[in-house]
Amino acid sequence: MWLTAFVVRTFGQAHGIIDVDQTVQAKAINWMKKKQSQDGSFPTVCHVLDKEMQGCSGGECSLTAYVTIALLEAGVPSSDPSIVNALTYLNSTCSSNDCENNYALAVISNVFCKAGHSRADELLNQLLSCATTEDDTMYWKYSKESNQFCYGRRWGMPCASRSCDVETSAYALLAFKCQGDVGNSLKIVHRLLEQRNPSGGFRSTQDTVVALQALSEYAALSVANNDVSMSIRFSTDSEFSWSLAVDSSNSQDVQTLNIPTLPSTLTASLVGVGCVLVQTGVKYNIPEPPEEAAFEVAAMATMNENKGKSCSYKIRVCNRYNKYMWYLAGLLKKPRSSNMALTDITLFSGFVPIDSDLKDLEKKGTRKIKRIDKQDRRVRVYIDEVRRKVCCFELQMKRTVFVEDLQGVPVISYNYYDPDQSGGTMLYPREECK
Question: What average pLDDT is seen over the chain?
Fold first, then answer.
């Protein structure tokens, strides 16, 4: 459901800029409408394989609000029954009067404003009461439990927000922008710009998508024209200086400067008219602390046949996901399932997999196994997801060439979309073929 809504929303925003097949768009919209529950909510259908891309919109209220936004931005009128039913559900079920889930509150506020709902102003006032204000910035934590320790505060540096906090603040910016509240919007913009990385993105795919949309819509609201004529001069305490000119011919271009030595101060002097963004980034290395393996893997090879020249082993591989996430983006840890996982099994020297056995595993095995590839002595098993509960499967290998004194071979499991999340073990024969 979420992925379809994401595509529909993207196509709706791109329509008028690029050619979008409206037949495909209409089919996707109709599919979502058919899946809508009787109470007006949009349920989860299947699941997203790359969960990092989904961001924080996995809850029932958040998902319903997200799908409703996608339909509205795709051109579905607010009077459409699917929109009316979704708004009724959100109004009766999801509009709490506290700051337990600021993300849902921000997304629902955005939906109500876009749809012209009578409670839009009320929810914006509630959203404002849940905000965190620091100096000239305003932002929201994903939930009131979303606290974090930040070393940067010791030196007056802005702290990096969690991905869900960035996404929540971006939806809040869209809601205030929808109401034409430039003053509060500017405070949120200041916070979001502090969180951007040197490449212009944020911490994840989804918070970058939402934050860039919010910043772009704010720019269209606040900047009346593109008339820019400005001279900028940068200087450091080490007598390094650099000047550039920005006008209508290059105002949309990114201009970068590499400072040869790290200064203690960097001064920017601007003369002229217009609006420009100046951003600095510092890269440095720190030793990474040892991290617990994301996957716990166990593998065992037992003799299956040992007659004459015929010899085969049965391999049993078990996986368990061991990665923890910040629950509600706070300090509580909670195990979760992986994205699509891949288990890479190397077979013993002189052995190959039994083809019929692999086909049976792929066809009749657990529904979580989506695909099996083989290449020489390696078998790769694609698993829909691995949870905290142990997931096991079995396959067989047969000897084609006699090799004496068989050695252990690696069995490695990893997150298909993030291979750094991995774990492995060595597979040894419990007894050796004659």
Answer: 82
Task: Choose the CATH number for 2-222 among 3.40.50.2300, 1.50.10.20, 2.40.37.10, 3.30.750.24.
Answer: 1.50.10.20
Task: Quickly name the fold that domain 295-427 has.
Answer: Immunoglobulin-like (2.60.40)
Q: Assign 153 a pLDDT band (cuts: 50, 70, 90).
A: very low
Residue 59's SS3 state is coil
E-strand stretches of 127-276: 132-134, 137-139, 229-236, 241-247, 266-273
Q: Report pLDDT for 224.
A: 58
Cα 93 to Cα 101: distance, rounded to the nearest angstrom: 13
Convert the pLDDT of each residue in 279-325 to its tens digit: 888 877 777 666 678 899 999 998 887 776 788 899 999 998 887 54
The label of the residue with tokens 């913009």 reads 189
Token pair of 183, please?
Answer: 């003053």
> Cβ neighbours of residue 195 under 8 Å, at least 6 residues apart?
158, 160, 161, 166, 202, 203, 211
Burial 378-414, CB ≥16 within 10 A → b, else e: ebebbbbbbebeebebebbbbbeeeeeebeebebbbb
pLDDT value for 306: 75
**Which DSSP string corresponds to 306-324?**
EETTEEEEEEEEEEEE--E
pLDDT tens digit sequence for 155-165: 344 444 577 88
Could you tell me the two tokens for 410? 């690696």
75: CB partners within 8 A, 6+ apart: 12, 15
Query: For residues 423 and 114, what is the distance between their CA atoms, to the nearest angstrom?
Result: 46
